[in-house]
From TrEMBL:
This is CAAX prenyl protease 2/Lysostaphin resistance protein A-like domain-containing protein. The chain crosses the membrane at residues 21-43, 63-82, 94-116, 122-141, 162-181, 187-205, 212-233, 239-260. The keyword Transmembrane helix applies. The keyword Membrane applies. Residues 126-224 form the CAAX prenyl protease 2/Lysostaphin resistance protein A-like domain. Keywords: Membrane, Transmembrane, Transmembrane helix. Pfam families: Rce1-like (PF02517). It comes from the Bacteria.
Amino acid sequence: MTFYNPPHPHTLHTAMSLPRLAPGIVPALMAWMLYGLITFVIQSSSGISYLDWFKTAANAWRTGVLSLAVGSVVLLGWLAITRWDHLWRDPRRLPVTGVMKAAMGFWWAAIALRLAGVDWQAVPLDLLLAVVVSGVLVGFAEETLFRGFVLRALREGGRAESSAALWTAVCFGLFHLPNVLMGTGAVGVIQVFLAALSGSVLYVFRRHTGRLWPAMVAHGAWDISAFLAGGYAQPWLTATTLPMLGLSVLVGIVVLASIVRGDRHVVMLP
């Protein structure tokens, strides 16, 4: 007679919590390539220039919403395959400096300024809905990919937090390079630089609470305000564009420099 000996509950829990793919740079790059390829194909196949994505509701649903929704499903599938730990939540909270807190305050102030300067009466309701949905999806997808997969991979093996945060920001900037092929032209190269700097502030939003969702909310709100201000800004808001851009660059540089200088000996995952 054969007897069945069930596994000890602790052993079963440990086995179920182990990642299917060990956290590392290669699986993170695979997530990046899968997401990037799928969204690029959907967006470019529309024939709509990047600069026209949010001119009409139909354009927004076809380019922004569709590509981001499919990309989000792909990332969730990759997460189910890899089953990484510490992707949504850090194992411990790192200190947040005054510079970092000021950067988060500037982020929300810039969003509030943009939203206050939107000519809301001119915004079609169907376009507004498409913009909000796009913002929610881009916040979820791009934060899951970069402040999630990429940051988690770069923290592996005892890598210093300064290095992990810096290279996550660089990767986030490079992720925007294909926009050059979709109609931004030389402006797209500048966008790469700006995205890398904004990525350093989005990293701070995760660091502040040790959780990923605040970075998702901050990212989504920023893009929603940018999409709306891009097409429906009142004259006074247009006049603030260059000064705000300059401040954004300065804030990003200061935050990134403080992280690189202050976290050289900090290790999140020894």
